[in-house]
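Quick one from the shared queue. A colleague (R.T.) flagged Dimethylamine permease as missing a structural entry in our internal table.

Convert sequence to structure tokens.
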Amino acid sequence: MIINKYFIYKKSEVKNMTSQGLKRQVKWYVSAALVIGTLGATGLFGNLPVTYSMAGPAAALVWIVTLLFGAFAAVVLAYNFTIWPDKAGAEYAPVRIALGKIPGAIAGWGFYINWGTAGAIASLILGRYIFGTDPSTFLHRQLFAFALVTIFFVFNYFGIKIAGITQTILTILKVVPLILVGLVAIPFVNLSNFHPFWVSGVPGVQANTMEGMLMLFLSAALIATWSTYSTDIFASIVPEIEDPEKGIPRAAWFSVVVSLAFVGLITITAIGVLGSQMGTLSKPLFQYGQIVLGNAGEILLWIALVCGALTVPNVALMSASRVTYQMAVEGDMPKIFAKTNKYGVPHWGLILIYLINVIMIFYTAAYAVLVAIVQVPWIVCWFLLGVANLKIRATKEWHEKAIFKAPWWVVIGAFIVGLIGFGYCYAYGVLWGWHDIILGIVFVLLILVIMAVDSLVSRNKK
């Protein structure tokens, strides 16, 4: 055995792991755990209060609806990857196949910059919860985040079995406390805390008009989607999942249903218990836990926060290295990123994303720029997924190959969800300024120019 008895690598397996590609080594539930573990990992604790302060009790609706929007992406990705079960990289693969090199690159880098940077972000946020926000603790938070990212880098380097079993355990430890506290909280809900339902916390926006409610929904949705649009991540490791034709649809549906259960429970009951305090307390979910279960409730929610936050650097390193792997296989990245080590891990991509996260942790300027540009590339990525699926569904040869077939209404729904994403960006720009949106647009245009020049040079060589 290699490593130790808990991480089931036989010597014969290691011998067979060459640099020829990813290996099928994990069950479908590991893929589902990527979504369930990361979805709302720190967002429920930090962003639910923010969305409440923007839209009032309607924040619960915003979270649930955006998660349902995310379900469309999960279903079409399950559809796509039963057609191409040997592809990795989530949105990148179907967009690259259906729409070509340049849209594929935009989708790939949109996915990469969103998920790849998440490890540093979540680790630093968890550091804030543990060490506080006093400037004197800044170095402690940085070192803590660096330690977490490094530990998960090591786990990932030695194979997806290690990273996968870690992800599964942490996901269970996150979800069970959330569902338990949410169920116990139901009798404590005060329905008067949901009236009025829409409450504007945004200057200049009236909550009693349709236009005002739409703006509140869109602006709060952009914050919520940092969590609820995690539904795509299960499709980043498809070539490493055993029996993907059955496993990928299971992972998609299971991750959406479980996520809806704990997101719905926590958002509705927390607002129903705390009311307007949701937008005024510094750590409202811990106060909510205290009210419904005393100290035990607060401890359970601390466990959920810590375990959920720990899943993010694990998944960030895993998923980002797989998208660069697939881009290299398709010729959109240097070939070195398609190489795998003896454990079946694309180690050069893993090293690259690890270094990017370390730079983000220790250089605040890099952190600020990368966080600012994330929005637009991520929304464009989802939009391109919707467009690609219109073509995939209309192409008889591709559709007939699918083991899991998405109906037209789901495909059209995924396209509409992609369009709605631009509404989030518009509302964010109108209400909070266009700086981040412009930076994101510049990033997308930069990718477009680089890929167009590369295509032109390749054509001239031929």
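Strands lie at 2-4, 7-9.
The chain has 18 helices and two strands.
Added to the table.
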